[in-house]
Amino acid sequence: MKQASEAGLLRKVIGASSLGTMIEWYDFYIFGMLAKTISTEFFPEGNSTAALLSTLAIFAAGFIVRPFGALFFGRLGDLLGRKSTFLLTLVLMGGSTFLIGLVPGYRSIGIAAPLIVLLLRLLQGLALGGEYGGAATYVAEHAPAGKRGFYTSWIQTTATLGLFLALGVIMLVKMNLPDEQFNAEWGGWRYPFWFSILLVIVSVYIRLKMQESPLFAKLKSEGKVVKNPLKESFRKRDNFKMVLLALFGAAMGQGVIWYTGQFYAQSFLETKVALNFEQSRSVLLWAILFATPFFIFFGWLSDKAGRKWIMLLGMLLGVLTYRPIFNALLENAKTEQASEGNRVLSGTKKQSKLLAGTADSLITVTRHFELAGGIQYVQEQTDTLRSATTSITEGKPVIKDKVLPKNLYWKYVGLVFLLILYVTMVYGPIAAFLVELFPVHIRYTSMSLPYHIGNGVFGGLVPFIGVLLQTTFTEDPLVGLWYPIGIAALSFIIGAVYLRNRTPAS
Amino acid sequence: MNAIKRILGIVWLLSGPLIIYFLLMGAVHNIDSNGEKDINNPVIWIIIIAIFFPIAIGLMIFGWYALKGVYNDTATSSVDQQ
C-alpha cells in the first residue's frame, strides 16, 4: 500500500516538474523559431540583415543570461527551497512570453518596441537558467538512489518536447493562415506567445499542490541550509573542481550535441538544403517523435551501466558522423543534376516592379521544376532592367521551397533521427549525473551553472559561430560543423580521462 | 592514468590563453567598420570574447588543478569527499 502511494507521488512529482519545464522550453523556443518575423516587426526596416542580426543578438543575449539565471535562482533554490524557486521561474517565463506577444511593433511605438522585447527576452533567459536545475533536483531528491537516471530522464525529455510543441503550434497557426495574416503586426505569429499563458496557468496550479523536496525539507528542519551557496560552491575547491569537471567533461559536449541535433539541423534543412517550410519542420517533428523514448531508455540504462560512457559515446558518435550525415542531407537533395528527365511543372511567371528611387525595374522570373528523382523545387531569378541603356543585369538563380518525394523524405527523417538519438544519449543521463556530483545544500547552484554554460553558451552559439565560420570559409557548406565537432571531441577527451563511471555498485 | 591526467593538465592550462589569443586576433583581423559581413561586426566579437574570457580562465584553473593532481583518483562526486 505504502509502495503504491510512493509510486503515485513520484508520478505526480515527475508530471508536475516535467510539464512546467516543458512549458519553459516552449516559451524559450518560439522566440527563436519566429526570429525572422520578430526581426521585421520589432527592428527598423530597410536593412533586413541588420534587423535579423539584432534579433540574433537578442537570441544570444537570451542564452548568455542563462548562466546568470542559474546563479541567481540556484542560490535562491538552495536558500529557500526547490519548490518556491521553480514556481517563481515558471511565472517569470510565462509572463515574459505572454507580454512579448502584446508588445506593439516598431512602426507603432518606435525604439521602445525592440527595447521592451530585449528586456523581456533577458527575463526569459534568467527564468530558464533557474528552472531546469530546480526541476531536475526536485525530481532527483524524490527518487530512490538506484533509479535517479530513470526518473530524471523524464525531465530530460521536456526540452525536446518543448521544441516539438513549439514547432507544432507554429506550424498549425502558419498552415491555417495566409502569409500576410501570419506576418501582420497583430497577426498569427503572436498566437503562440498568447497560448503560453494558458499552459503556465495550468502548470502553476499543479505545482502549487506539490510539497517541498524531502531532502531539502530535512536539511531545513535540521537547520543545515547553507548561508551562502555561491561561496560554498565556487570558493571551496572540492566543490569547484567538480563544477569545472562537470562543465568541461560533460555539459560542454552535451550542449553542442544537443543544439546541433535539434537547432542546427533544422536551420540546415531550411537554409542549406532549401526544403520548404512544411518539410523542414515536419522532418524534425517525426525524428523527435521517434527519438524521444530513448531519453528514458538511456536514463534507465545509466542506472545500470553508469552515466559516463553513455554520454561520452553520444559525443563520440557526433564527432565521427556529423559531417557524413549533414553531407548526405545536402547531396541527396541536390538540384544541379543532369537536366534530362527533368520537367517544368509550371511555366515562367514574370513579375516586374520599379526599383525605388530610380527608373530601373526588377524582373523576377519564377519557375517550378521536378527532377527525374521526384524532387520538386522553385527557381527564382531577379534581373535588373536598366532604363537608360535598356540592358539587363542578370541576377543569380535562387533555389528554394524544395519538396522531397516520399522515400527520400523518410530517409531524411532517419538521418535527423540519428542526430537526435545522439542527443538522447548525452542528455538522458545528465541530470542524474549532475545531481549526484554535488551535496544537497549546494546542489541547485552547483549543478545549474555548468549545465547552463554548457547548453546556453557552448550550445547556444552553435548557429552563431556556424554563421561566422561560413562567412570566412565560403566554399565548404559544412564548415559550421567544425565548432560542435571540436567542442564535443574536447569534452570527450576530458570526460574519458577525468570522469569516473558511477554505477550503483560504485 | 594519473600521469596522463597531469600531463593533459598542461594542455588545458595552455589552452586558456591560446583561446583568448585567437579570439583577440580574430577580432583584430575581422572587425571592419566598412565591412558588411557578420564577421566585421564588432558587437559580435565583443559578445563572443566577453563570454569566452571567463570560460578560458576556468579551463586554465581546471588545467592547474589537473597538473597539481587534484583530479588524481577522482572521487565520483564532491559528496563522496564530505
What is this structure's SSE topology?
The complex is a heterodimer of chains A (506) and B (82).
Chain A (H helix, E strand, L loop, with lengths): L1 H32 L1 H8 L5 H33 L1 H19 L5 H4 L2 H29 L7 H28 L3 H5 L7 H18 L5 H8 L7 H7 L1 H36 L4 H15 L1 H13 L2 H24 L11 E12 L6 E10 L5 E10 L6 E2 L4 E6 L2 H22 L2 H8 L5 H17 L2 H11 L9 H17 L8
Antiparallel strand pairs in A: 1-2, 2-3, 3-4, 3-5
Chain B lengths: L1 H29 L11 H26 L15
Keywords:
heterodimer; A: 506 residues; alpha+beta; Growth Hormone, Chain: A; 2 domains; five-stranded antiparallel sheet; 20 helices; 8% strand; B: 82 residues; mainly alpha; 2 helices; 67% helix; elongated
Radius of gyration of chain A: 24 Å
Q: How is the quaternary structure best described?
A: heterodimer
State the name of the first-level CATH class of the largest domain in chain A: Mainly Alpha
Proportion in β-strands of chain B? under 5%
User: What is the share of helical residues of chain A?
Assistant: 55-70%
- List the secondary-structure elements of chain B in sequence, H or E: HH
Helix percentage of chain B? 55-70%
Low-confidence region ranges of chain A: none
Structural class of chain B: mainly alpha
Strand fraction of chain A: 5-15%
Principal-axis shape of chain B equals: elongated
- Main sheet specs of chain B: none
Number of strands of chain A: 5
The mean pLDDT of chain B is: 82
How many helices of chain A does DSSP assign? Answer: 20
Segments of chain B where pLDDT lies below 50 for 5+ residues?
Answer: none
Q: Give the rounded overall mean pLDDT of chain A.
A: 85
Compute the number of structural domains of chain A.
2
- The CATH superfamily of the largest domain in chain A is MFS general substrate transporter like domains
